Amino acid sequence: MSLWVDKYRPRSLDELHYHPELSSRLRSLSASGDFPHILFYGPSGAGKKTRIMATLRELYGPGVEKLRIDQRVFVTPSNRKLDVNVVQSNYHIELTPSDVGMYDRVVIQDILKEIAQTQQVDLNAKQRFKVVIINEADALTRDAQAALRRTMEKYMNNMRLILCANSTSKIIAPIRSRCLLVRVAAPTDDEMTKVLQHVAKKERFGLPASASKSILASSQGNLRKALLVFEAMKMQKPDLTGDLEVAKPDWETYCAKIADSILQEQSAQKLLDVRGKIYELLSHCIPPTVVLKTISERIVDKVDDALKPQIVHWAAYYELRMRMGSKKIFHLEAYIAKVMTIYKQFNMIGYTDDYE
Amino acid sequence: MPPSTPRKSTKKADSEDYSPKKSPEKKKVVKKEEKPAGKDIRGFGSQQPTSSSKAVNGTGKKPITIDDSDEEEEEKIEKKPASKGTNSKHFPSASSSKKPITIDSSDSDTPAPPNKNKPPTPKSKSAASTSTSSKRKILIGSEEEEEALEDVKPAKKRQSIGGGLSRPAAKKSAYVDESESESEEEKPKKANNKAKPSAKKEKSVSPMDVDESDESDEDDFIDDDEDDKPYKGKTKAKPKAPPKKTTPAKKPAPPPKASKKEEAKETEPKVEEKKPAPNNNWRAAAAARASGPKNPGSREIPEGAPDCLAGLTFVFTGEMESLSRDDAIELVKRYSGKVTTSPSGKTSFVVVGENAGASKLAAIKQKKIPTLTEDEFFKFIQGREGGQLDEKQLKAKAAEEKKVQQQALEMEKREKEEEKDRKRKEKALEGTGIATKKVAPASSQLWTTRYAPTNLKEICGNKTVVERLGTWLKDWQKNYKSGFKKPGKDGTGIYRAILISGPPGIGKTTSAHLMAKEAGYNPIELNASDARSKKLVENFTNIDNTSLDGFFQGGGIQSTSVADVQVNSRTCLIMDEVDGMSAGDRGGVGALNGLIKKTRIPMILICNDRSSQKMKPLMSTTFNMTFRRPSPAEIRSRIMSILFKEKLKIPANVVDELVKGANSDIRQVLNMLSTFKLSKDQMDFDEGKELIKINEKNTIMTPFTITDKLTGPYAFSKTSKETLSDRMELYFHDFSFVPLFIQEHYLKTQPALANNLSGNEQNLKHLELASKAADSISDGDLVDRMIHGSEQHWSLLPFHAVQSTVKPASLIYGPGRQSGGGGFGSWGPAFPQWLGQNSKQGKLQRQLTDIQIRMRLKVSGGRSEIREQYMPLLASKVIMPLVDRGTDAVEETIEYMDEYYLGKDDWDALVELGVDTMSEGLITKKIPTATKSAFTRQYNKADHPIAFHKGDMFAASKKKIADQGPAPDNEDVFEEDEPVPDEASDKGDNDDEADEINDVSKDKLIKAVKPKGAAAKGKAKGKK
């Protein structure tokens, strides 16, 4: 009864559908006995974690798939207790330090040291080292990243790190230089079609080309999304023919509504309404950058060509501020105020070059 | 005509009522004073042995009767001398008090003398005076008003511009020559002009002004004459106007030459401006001004005769050009006028500025209240004579003054008597060797003790409450005998104690003491400086012992002693500062409450804040008596008489300001004045203001008022006097909240900066301002990050103040925009949403993390991926079926949930996380209750795989786990040995395991088994 995306997840390097050269590189790395620290990076839904798990399987055998979850309690210097969920097998441990926000350094220091200082006890294990997987490595604070540096060298005997990130830009150079960088690119359309066909075949039905096209269009190179959309579509229209309107997720339709209302009326009162809606999205765990991006895309779609560059410019400008600041809504609101002003100005006076 | 509307002051009647009785009452009080009625225990104790009060204390009831008779006698006496007293008193005081008034009235009633004073300006007297008066008339509401207005305004403008320019010094020297030659030419013509300038001569003569006037004179010379002619004509038409020359005459006469030049200058630009401004409507004028350059602070604030606005009531509306609202109000008060916020029938004038409120304008029209512009207002002040009061006001004033003096005399008399008494006592005791507590002579006492009220009449304000306190005390014994069953007239009869509450400094303690003494009790005061813990309260009042109880039994023990003080039936316990019974006085309030229930003497409790939690137990056992802050009018006469006695000359309006500034805290006012007395003998308005400022209590404002203040309609208008640092100061009142409030509020105003536009343009401007403000707030957040982030640059706080608070406020200040309806938050700053939304986000984030970690065994995605990509599909698998198919779908739903290790809680969280069409409200509405309960029932029936156990499921063992830390090796061994169960056996295991966990939940190993089994199950399936 699993969702298809989980049901047909490849388990070994051989099963992977695309990036064969990467698979063979990983295979030889795990065979070499000199496995390095690796930093996997690439867009969401490209298959990073699937590849990591497949690599681990290659390293240790099927034992790594015996996962269990542990909740650990850490105490910060300020005596705050932190709960961190840890996923582990006998051979590896996986954590997401960014769950605890600014206290991630404590987690990194405690867990890594503990693991690094104990040797592999299991005599049957294929490797002498254990693997620590750090998810969302690009969300680590600088302090936490700094805490990694020395550990990575000092405990090389007992432990290998696998970092998983969307982009390397937020990982400090010393870490990058200590890792083997492995980029997992998003699959091409062909590769994605191949995967979709594979799933369709396993589920014993045919996938019409039109359907796979609309799935690809809406998933933008995110294979996870593509598969989920695929299943949703199959659920909606079992025959997969006719008008295949891909059902948009709730937050996306909501963002679209916000964008429409921005273009419909530009006033302080409207801005106030929009603020309420954005609060709604943010409080329901939609990341602010996603909100900004989705709204901007929608607006860019609809406005006059002359305005498009400006709107994108400001979107980028405020996204940067959002990352630098702490209260995201302030920047989102400033962005929307800006867009409203530009748009109204354009409607009333005509195009004005306002890049500040 | 300047309508000096007559207002009757009600004070007159009061003062007449009181005055005759004063002297006898004082006598009585003095007599009583001889008894050492202890003000507090310590004082009481030490005085005890020395004086006649022994009689009172020593022998039960007897002294009481004596006491009573005393009083009665006194009353009798009181009546007799009353008439005498009045007569004798009345006479001198009346005569003396009249003096100042006559001076005043002579000013207003006989206009001749001031006119005679005028001659220093010799040329064309008659023309001058008539034209002035005409001007005056014009100013106030007549039809010609507009013309005059147009004239005057430009004149002002010009001048201010001139004043702003700094002229080269060289010019000045040139001017000397020029002026001499010119002045001769000008003289004849200036004589004509003379009148006008004198009326609006608010400008102090500065060399700069003179300079300019000289230059421009040459051009516009001839025009001036022509302009003046029509005015003269008008003047003649209304010849009865009172001459307004008094004001200039009173002022230190400026050198004649200079004044003339000024006049010339003022008249001259008029001509220029006349042509372009034909519209006479003041609204149009306001609009014109708005578009043109404004001249904030351009006008010099006029100087009027003292008290020239007495008896007049002003209302300000709209924004004035050069005065801020506060300044304008202050100006009116300075000249003893009154300011109200909304126009009513009693309003004398409305001063209308720019963007006046529509409702006010309507009210003005309806009630036909005369309006003034700023210029007219200034001129009005300048031109009006001091003390223009009608007869009734004069009478009232006279009566008040008389009263003040009388009171002062009484005080003096009493003081003398006390002094005498004190000396007598000292003498008497001199040789006896009995140590006495030295009473300081009155002159060396604090004003607050020296002028503490000694009888009921002298208490300022709260009269009815105090009287009620008195009757309660008098009836206490009676009520006691009847067992506190009869409520009595005012309902106080059933209480053994009274709880007085009210702000500090308004005479609570004083009233309590006074009334207790007046009712014949010996007040004993216990205040925060005494320890009042439970034990002590019980001990020193001996509720458990026989002391109080035993007093009435038998003749043997007639009194008991408490803290060295004799307590008897005529003792009244005053517990001051009850709310100060805090940490140190553990159980104090409770013990006190116990005491109240049994007390055999009246108890008066005093506190500041009745509503505090600590006072709760007292609510039911005490009668609540709230003291309010007396109004300045109630305090004024008392303060005035003290001042009179102290020979400190402070006008009544300044006293009012002081009282208001101190929040009616009489004690503070007295303290302020007594220190002021050390340096000076009189105080004018400005000194008063300064004194208030120095003594201003440092109150922390709430973010609501701060936001209001920062974004109010005129907060950043050009007339506002506040500096950047003043505004930053506001931020620092509460620097963590104020920025949030500003962020919440900044879209809810109608920016004043966009006011001069309308329609779409205004909207655009508004948006631009909002966008700028939002940018600034966004900047502020970046700064905030630097402050609160890892860098901790706290020195950036002032910068943050500007970026997050002051700058946005400066852009969008203006009146609040009604955001629909009259509900909560539609008026004034609302509480920032951010806080609520942030905590909601945190909560949902935790729930999402929970979901993610459960699903982690099956899913590779992180939190955001779960939310953005999985959730929509997952919802269609586990939520929508329930909506669409109801109970039938329950099985299927649960199956999916088990697959991903989601529990019922997680299901709820999934629902809660939805937005838009999937929002929680919509979905829960759509799922029938029957389905929901079926779902819950079904879910609870079976056991479900769980991914792991949260730490808090083992509340007892949690700590242990945390302490010992993870022990991976041990677990590993265990895991390794266990065979991976296949799917079939796993299903069976699940049930057992669930039970097991409940039993041996402290065993960490069991916990590990579970998820592993579950994982294995998943894996097995996947492999297939």
TrEMBL record, chain A:
Residues 34-187 form the AAA+ ATPase domain. SMART domains: AAA. It is found in: Nucleus. SUPFAM superfamilies: P-loop containing nucleoside triphosphate hydrolases, post-AAA+ oligomerization domain-like. GO terms for molecular function: DNA binding; DNA clamp loader activity. GO terms for biological process: DNA repair; DNA strand elongation involved in DNA replication. Keywords: DNA replication, Nucleus. One of its GO terms (cellular component) is DNA replication factor C complex. It holds the Pfam family DNA_pol3_delta2. Belongs to the activator 1 small subunits family. This is Replication factor C subunit 5. It comes from Kwoniella pini CBS 10737.
UniProtKB/TrEMBL annotation, chain B:
Residues 209-228, 969-998 have a biased composition (Acidic residues). It is found in: Nucleus. Residues 45-56, 84-109 have a biased composition (Polar residues). CDD domains: AAA (cd00009), HLD_clamp_RFC (cd18140). GO terms for molecular function: ATP binding; ATP hydrolysis activity; DNA binding; DNA clamp loader activity. Residues 111-122 have a biased composition (Pro residues). One of its GO terms (biological process) is DNA strand elongation involved in DNA replication. Residues 1-304, 405-432, 959-1024 are annotated as: Disordered. Keywords: ATP-binding, DNA replication, DNA-binding, Nucleotide-binding, Nucleus, Phosphoprotein. Residues 11-42, 259-276, 405-421 have a biased composition (Basic and acidic residues). Residues 232-243 have a biased composition (Basic residues). InterPro entries: AAA+_ATPase, ATPase_AAA_core, BRCT_dom, BRCT_dom_sf, DNA_pol3_clamp-load_cplx_C, DNA_replication_fac_RFC1_C, P-loop_NTPase, RFC1. Residues 123-133, 277-290 have a biased composition (Low complexity). One of its GO terms (cellular component) is DNA replication factor C complex. Residues 304-394 form the BRCT domain. PANTHER family: CHROMOSOME TRANSMISSION FIDELITY FACTOR 18 (PTHR23389), REPLICATION FACTOR C SUBUNIT 1 (PTHR23389:SF6). Belongs to the activator 1 large subunit family. This is Replication factor C subunit 1.
